Description:
With about 325 residues, the protein is of the alpha/beta class.
Amino acid sequence: MSAPKILITEPVPQKVIDYLGNMGEVLVAEKGIYNSELQLKKDIRDFDALLCMLSTPVTNAVLEEAKNLKVIANFAVGYNNIDVKAANELGIKVANTPDVLTEACGDFAMALLMATTRHFYDAEKYLRKGEFKGWEPLGFLGMELRGKNLGIVGMGRIGKAFATRAKAFGMNIFYHNRSSISGTDEKELEATFIDTIEELAQRSDVLSLNCPLTPETYHLVDNHILELMPSNSILIDISRGPVVDEAALAEALHKGMIGGAGLDVFEEEPNVHPRLLTAPNCTMLPHIASATYETREAIGMLAANAIIQVLRGDKDEQIPNLVFA
Ligand code: DGY
C-alpha cells in the first residue's frame, strides 16, 4: 500500500512537518496558493489528509473533488472556513485546535486593550516622527482600567482567559453567552451574566468579542449595538472579523460614537475596510493573537495528531484537546 498523501496549505513549524513525515508523504504548499477555492479544487483529489488554515476555503465544491480525503485538520480554533456538514456527509473527519491557543490569546487581548486605551501606536508614531519635544501633562491621555466594566461576548476558554487577566487589572467582569457559565467560574472571576447583548453593550467600558463566527453572530456588533455603547468605550475583537459590521464600526469611530477599537481580525482578511484605515483610535493588527512559538507549534501538533489518528484508524487513542466536529 502506498504512503498516504498529506497536504499542508501553508508553511508551519518544522516539527509538525517532520512529525507528519513519519506518517506519509507531505506536501507543504507555498504561502497563499490555497487561499483560493479554485486551486484547492484542482489539487485536492490527490490527498488523503488536509492540514489547512483559516484562510483555506474548504467548500462543498472543494469537497466534491476530494475523492481520497479522509481527514481535515484546521490550524485554527473554529471551523468557519470549512463546510463541516458536507464533509461529514462524505465521511470525512474534521478537527480543529481548541484550547492550545487559549493563554496566548488571553495575553494578546490584554495587550490589545492596553495598546488601544493608552494609544501605543499613535504615541510611537509621534516619537519616531521626531515630534516628542518634551514631557507633556496632557499628551496621549487614555482610559485607566481599574474599576471599569469589561463586557465579554462569548465566555468560552479564551473569554475566561481574558477575564482572568482583566480581573487582575481591577476590572469588573460582565458577560453574555448562550448560557451562563458554571457557578465556580462565575465566583472565581466575580463575573455577572447579562441577558442581552444590548444591555451588555450599554454597561461596558470595554466590549470584547470572544465568540465563534456562526450565522447567529454574523454582524452581531452593528450600528444598533455601536449606538448603545458609551461614547468613550472601546471595542476589542480577536474572534472573527465578520462578527462586526466593519463599515458601521468605521463610521462610529469617525463620528466619535465610541472611544476606540482594537482589532486583530477583519471581515475580508487580508483586506481591511478603507474607512477603518483612517479611523481615529483604532489599533489594527494582522491576526496574530495566537502567534507565539509555543502556541503555533502546539496548534500544529494537535492538528497533526488528528490526521495521524484518522489515517491509522486508531479510534481509541486519547489525545488531550482533540475533538472532531
Ligand atoms: C485562530 O484560530 O484565529 C488562530 O489564530 C489560528 O489561526
